[in-house]
Amino acid sequence: MRHTPGDRQVRSATLAFVFLASPALHAQVGVDISMERSSFLLYEEIEAQVKLSNYLSEPLDMARMSGGGPWLSFYVTTAEEEEIAAGERAWTPPRVALLPGQMKSVSVNLTPYFLIRDPGEYRVAALVIHGGKRVSSRALKFSVVNGVTIWQQRYTAPAEPGDASRKPRPRLYSLLMHRINQLQTIYARIQNPEANFICCTTLLGNIVNYGEPRARVDLRGDLHVLHQSGTRIYNYTRFSAVGKRLENRFFANLTSPPIMVTGQNDETEIIGGEEIFQERDQKQQVIPTAPIAKTPRH
Fold first, then answer.
1. Do 270 and 209 share a structural domain?
2. Pair 78, 10: CB distance under 8 Å
């Protein structure tokens, strides 16, 4: 997903959170907003969940009750109560129907729809149009940080397969650290520094304080990352040059630590370690790789 970095684009709100004058608990519908965490890395997905409650004795069709416009929207400001402008992409809320006494949740990634392009403190509220009235949630605080860059590499990837222009793709690949709830986490970011857009900023998982992560970019422009996420657990992740996560594998260090190396024909191989497979509805089991894990599947 592409996001345009640049100067913050905000406009002053004439009335700070004017919609919040309505109580979060309406006589007919209740609205609340939450996030799984309150701190995010710049340009990563900022996921929010809106919980809706129907207090009527009859079903509610939220879209039908909105009068034709979007029945759900969001209001985002900085800590200084400057309203954050919406991006070029418009978010369309899903159609939601609530039975009497029923609660449902709607999730949204705020990043592509609002120009949250600078580190800082922010607030967000959900706004519901219902029966000609605005019902708002409480204002939820969250922060956005730059993180710490621990590795970078520039590379011009070849043209994407099927691209008639055969235009090469300049890329800047980065690994970043960010502390979440007292845990150190690692992210991968891929961007086009010439076109000034972000392809992805993706959380790879936890990372231990010891054990340096390994990263390489192959001739196709794919990013390969091997990092230690636990005492004896390693994560391997592969991304395409457009920022799509292509592969995610796990290894244990029971007899020897896994090592990422470059094989013949520029293939990325994991040597040593024991690959961990997890099937649906089954517990993890450790299966040794003997002695070299297969080249990451394409």
1. yes
2. yes
Return d(Cα 186, Cα 202) in angstroms, integer: 9
Domain count, the chain: 2
Same domain, 276 and 168: yes
Domain edge (last residue) among 94, 117, 145: 145
H/E element, 83: strand 82-84
Q: How far is CA 75 from CA 20, 72, 217, 248, 292, in A?
A: 10, 10, 39, 35, 52
Confidence of residue 90 (pLDDT cuts 50, 70, 90): confident
CA–CA separation, 151 vs 148, rounded Å?
Answer: 9
pTM of the shown model: 0.80
- Count of other CB atoms within 10 angstroms of residue 56: 13
**Residue range 114-123, pLDDT digits in tens:** 999 999 999 9
Which pLDDT belongs to residue 298? 33
Residue of 185, 158, 176 whose CA lies nearest to 242: 158
Sign of CA dihedral 3, 199, 140, 96: positive
- Is residue 120 located within the same domain as residue 171? no
- Count of CB atoms situated within 10 Å of the CB of 279: 8
Domain boundary residue, one of 116, 145, 174: 145
Q: What are the pLDDT digits (tens) for 153-179?
A: 999 999 988 887 889 999 999 999 999
